Amino acid sequence: MTRSREIGRAGWGWTAFAGIIALIYFFPVMWIIMTAFKTRPDALAVPPKFFFTPTLDNFVGVFFRAVISGGGAAQATEFPLYFFNSIFIAGVSCLLALIIGTIAAYGFSRYPLKGNETYMFIILTTRMMPAIVVVIPIFLMFREIGLSGTYAGIIFLYTAFNLPFTIWMVRSFFDELNTEIEDAARMDGATERQLFFGICLPQVKAGLAATFVFGLILTWNEFLFALLLTGVDTRTVPVAMARTLGGEMGVDYGLLAAIVTLFLIPIFFVTFLLQNQLLRGVTFGTVRK
Amino acid sequence: MADLIVQDVVKRFGRVTALDGMSFEVREGEFYCLLGPSSAGKTTMLRAISGLEQLDGGRILFGGRDMAAAPIQGRGIAMIFQTFALYPHLTVRANFAYPLERAGVPAQEIRTRVGEVAELLRVGHTLDRLPSTLSGGEQQRVAIGRALVRRPQLLLLDEPLTNLDAKLRHDTRAEFKRLHRELGMTMLYATPDQLEALTMGQRVGVMQAGRVVQVDTPRSLYAAPQDTYVAGMVGSPAINLVPGTIRRRDGGFAVDLPFGTLPADAWRIHLSGGEPVLFGVRPHDVLLGHHPTRGPGFTATVHLTEPLGDVTLLDLDVNGAAMKMALPEERALGLGPGTPIEVTLSAADVHLFHAETGVRIA
Q1: Which residue of B has its CA nearest to A179?
Q2: Checking DSSP bridges between strand B4-13 and strand B57-62, what pairing results, if any?
Q3: Is residue B361 part of a domain?
């Protein structure tokens, strides 16, 4: 019902046009997902094959390494660990950044310091620095104090990495709130703690969800710090993926595509789950009066 | 005694002085209006009384108690905000219950009182809904209910009708009067709208730049504004002010105006003559036609007509002086631009102010 009316309003031409644009944008993703289901000859075929017999061999290959010479059972790979690492590290550091950042943002918004905006600017400048500039000293520092290769190390780093963005974003949500509501709560007898938890936080819930997801996507995709600061046990998927490139057999595109496809799933799932909050989060302040 | 006494209150924000020696008194059970333009300091005054703002000078006594040290929630004061300030994430029921829960009222009692307030304000059907799903009028009533549920001794209202449409404003004005009559609560109402102040206030304090400049009943404010500022604030359409000169003549005074002379023998004024003055007459006191018993008549030309529905506003040119007059709609029919007419200024209802200070002479 709704769909047919929407098509009706814009006309078939525009709807088809929008569809084609969407297809072009989505093509790389579609290509990688398709490749994940192809055999090696299919994956390398020129011109690319759009119709083929799908296979799950690549996905099996992500988790089990076939022993090439001689018989023997297939050997489990480390990928389950890497997926756990990616989820654990990104999840915990984004959650930490959200908690610390929200408290900081509330402070910046409601209890401004002398030179408040200067502090905010300084916080922002920490993100202007290209990661490559700081990665060497951080690598050396981490190695010196033993954080290199540990969960704590990379989680702390990602928390710090996410904080400026979180503080800026959440502060803008707090700034948007109608302060008369807090005044009303004060007159109704709310303590400062009740104001924060009972009045302000519930109002920015959607914004917090949006901030969390954006941070999660950034962290999930991060490669440079992860490459240098994670060890064998704490390696994340992007780093592990890079290591499958090369080797004596050349690039196994099918395997790589299968990893990428699996790598897409969690972030897709979270975004899908929080899509309503996300939408409300990014349109915050533009729709409300 | 729950009198509210505000004495010489000063409040500054940085270099801006919002309240500059503000003094007024509200009697117990009174409906008192603070009338002033948007930057006069009305909201700051209410916030200072509520405890949301600290004073930079002066003091506020409520029921004989100095409010300076009193905590915000212990003052027995509730406030209705311009934006209603409902808790958007809580249902109407939870909004009502919030102040009671904070005060530690038992759950059973909360249920009873929420029910009472919902009935008083006729919002019983909305109790389980979120504020954003209510109409403007319902939101307003919920805001009133949340303020009343604590049974405050003093209710502060900060331009509560600003966010409502015209029809609702009218209904809500009546609602406020009804609540005041039924609950007998002291109410302090801030508004920039003279209509609201005059229709609801038992007394009105007119504010100018952080002070109260005149306090009186609506009728007296209208009849005897103490200066041109108050005369301009009170009454709609705004009063006509025409520059003139006082002249002494046999046994009394007269005012020379651009369009003629107005005898002022009846006025008890202490002037030597020759002073420049501002002559004020409200558009409703400019009468159509010749009425020798009411006052002097002048000829005028209609310049522009503004039909307002029941009343038509005429822009007149009286021998070069611009003046507005208000006529019942049916009497203004046929008075198009350019029509010459005869007008009479109702002598009993004219005002005279000093040209420089604006202070009332008579």
Answers
A1: B85
A2: antiparallel
A3: no
Q: Are residues B203 and B333 in the same domain?
A: no
Query: Do B97 and B246 reside in the same domain of the chain?
Result: no
Question: Measured between CB atoms, does A233 come within 8 Å of chain B?
Answer: no
Q: Within 13 Å, how many C-alpha atoms sit on residue A278's CB side?
A: 13
B82 touches chain A (CB under 8 A): yes
Same domain (yes/no): B291, B226: no
A184/B85 touch (CB, cutoff 8 Å), yes or no: yes
Residue A71 belongs to domain spanning: 2-76
Q: Give the whole-angstrom CA distance, residue A106 versus residue A112.
A: 9
A173 and A272 both lie in a single domain: yes
Judged by DSSP in three states, B187 sits in strand
Residues A65 and A191 both lie in one domain? no
Q: Which domain does B91 fall in, by range?
A: 4-233
Residue with structure tokens 């989820």?
A: A87
Q: What is the pLDDT along chain A (289 residues), one digit of tens a residue?
A: 445 555 567 788 888 999 999 999 999 998 889 999 988 888 887 787 778 888 888 888 888 876 555 555 667 888 899 999 999 999 999 999 999 999 999 999 999 999 999 999 999 888 888 888 888 899 999 999 999 889 999 999 999 999 999 999 999 999 999 999 999 999 999 999 999 999 999 999 888 988 998 899 889 999 999 998 998 889 999 998 888 776 556 778 888 899 999 999 988 888 888 887 777 766 655 444 4
The answer on A101 and A85 residing in a single domain is: yes
Instruction: List, in order, residues 6 or more apart from A61 with CB less than 8 Å away.
Output: A252, A254, A255, A258
CB-CB under 8 Å, A187 with B87: no
Q: Which residue of A has its CA nearest to B103?
A: A189
With an 8 Å Cβ cutoff, are B79 and A183 in contact? yes
Amino acid sitting at position A57: D
- The answer to whether residue A52 sits within a structural domain is yes
Check if A144 contacts B (Cβ < 8 Å). no
Examine the domain organization and report whether A240 and A107 are in the same domain.
yes
CA distance B22 to chain A (A): 22
- Regarding whether B252 and B105 lie in a shared domain, the answer is no
Strand order in the sheet with B252-257: B260-263, B252-257, B240-249, B276-281, B350-354
ipTM above 0.95, yes or no: no
